[in-house]
Amino acid sequence: MLQGKKILLGVTGGIAAYKAVEVVSRLRKAGAEVRVVMTREATEFVTKLTFREISGNPVAVDMWAPVQHWNVAHIALAEWADAVLVAPATANIIAKAALGVADDMLSTTLLAVTAPVFFAPAMNSNMYAHPATQKNLDILVKRGLHIIPPGTGKLACGAEGPGRLAEPADIVAALEAFFIEGAQLSGIKVLVTAAGTIEPIDPVRYIGNRSSGRMGYALAEEAVARGAEVVLVSGPSALKPPSGLKQFVSVETAAEMREVVLREAETSRIVIKAAAVADYHPKHVSEQKIKKNDEELSIRLEKNPDILKELGQRKRPEQILVGFAAETQNLLQYAREKIEKKNLDFIVANDVTKPGAGFNTTTNTVKIIARDGSIEEVPLMTKREIAKRIFDYVLQKGENRI
Ligand code: PMT
To answer: In 128, 176, 197, 362, which residue has its Cα 20 to 30 A from 217's Cα atom?
Structure first.
């Protein structure tokens, strides 16, 4: 998976800098092209010459050095890279990256990068455990950067504990795994629905629900990250659609969602229905704003079509259909009934009464139930992480259909 990939390696000033030489060697053996940016401190541990020889490319250290042979300006380097790896990453570069400080070649390049970024921390275990470092790592993770955790053991400073740079083979394996995952759904069309539908009562009022769209948008983002052609059909949401979508369709009512979803599902290999579709709509929509004349007001509701059930009836053998179940009681029983009734391959059941789960939260906890009865329990985590776990499970179980 690394064949032809352009990897920009940032080396910072720690004793583990010598291990970065092996990382370069392994990356090149795996077919990657490697360019190296060193901090000035890193050159105290390993020379520029070593990295130049092992990478086969000039090494950038100084922002102001005259440009020779190739463009080492930070913007050019940032644009060139398919992925950026900082190994070893000291507490200092982690802090600078978290804050967006740009005071040397590497930190400035990191600010200009749009490619995926990996940090492999290496430092004294107290420095690693320090709340400032942990907070900074947390900021980087939330920003979507990847952390290759350090190993535990005897450190160069004599201390024992976490902080040892991950083994070069593991660092390269992490990059490989990323590119494999990134190509996993290449050429595969994935249809995702998100947010709640709204059903008008009159020109200014509607029946709606508390769905923010976060769960569905996270799923769409994860599908994009795995290389899929993603169509996201969303009810009203304050969220910005993820970048990289093939198509984004904004709808309001269940009827509008049904029309788009049934059409798009015909050419989709995976369909995931995270939207909270209204089960009923007002039978008559008043053309004028309803006046508050009476003490009581009745609105007659009529059942909406069950989009997921229709998808289940039309499902093709190679298609994977994933439904959601938002329940307040009897979670497993109701979810299992929905698998049968709607002819699903998987259902993601969330007990929306649990703190931090369900509607309008940034986190969720779910049980992913497969048609064969097996269950994957996913504890409380961000919706983005839940989305990853859903794809991991669905693709692993439905492997022979993708
Ligand atoms: O958007 P968030 O704030 O992040 O919240 C996420 C969520 C709680 C909305 C999400 O995790 C979730 O549970 N979505 C499904 C909500 C729901 O409508 O559940 P349900 O049990 O009522 O419906 C079961 C399934 O049938 C769902 O896949 C739903 O999309 C589908 N359905 C329901 C009714 C209908 N008329 N047509 C449908 O297709």
So the answer is: 176
The pTM (predicted TM-score) of the whole model is 0.80
Note whether 262 and 256 are within 8 A (CB): no
Q: How far apart are CA 186 and CA 209, in angstroms?
A: 34
Please classify residue 171 by burial: count the beta carbons closer than 10 Å to its beta carbon, then call 0-12 exposed, 13-18 middle and 19+ buried.
Answer: buried
Q: What is the rounded (10 degree) CA torsion for 343, 345, 351, 357? A: -130
Phi and psi of 50, rounded to 5°?
-60, -50
Distance 273 CA to ligand 1 centre (A): 7
- Residue 13, pLDDT > 60, answer yes
What residue owns the CA closest to ligand 1's atom 10? 274
* DSSP 3-state of 232: strand
In angstroms, the Cα distances linking 242 to 137, 231, 275 are: 23, 11, 16
**Ligand 1 atom 27 nearest Cα:** 324
pLDDT 10s digits, 281-309: 999 999 999 999 889 999 999 999 999 99
- Name residues whose C-beta falls within 8 Å of residue 146's C-beta, 6 or more positions apart in sequence: 116, 117, 118, 119, 174, 178
- pLDDT, the chain, mean: 94
Residue 400: DSSP 8-state? G
State the Cα–Cα distance between residues 63 and 347, nearest whole angstrom: 53
Q: What is the residue whose two structure tokens read 């380097």?
A: 77
pLDDT tens-digit series, residues 213-257: 999 999 999 999 999 999 999 999 999 999 899 999 999 999 999
Average pLDDT over every residue of 323-352? 97
Binding site membership of 310 for ligand 1 (Cβ less than 6 Å): no
Cα 380 to Cα 112, 192, 223, 365, distances in angstroms: 33, 22, 21, 4
What backbone phi and psi angles, to 5 degrees, belong to 65?
Answer: -65, 145
**Angle, vertex CA 2, rays to CA 188 and CA 17, nearest 5:** 135
Give Cα separations from 118 to 45, 97, 236, 282 (angstroms): 21, 12, 35, 51
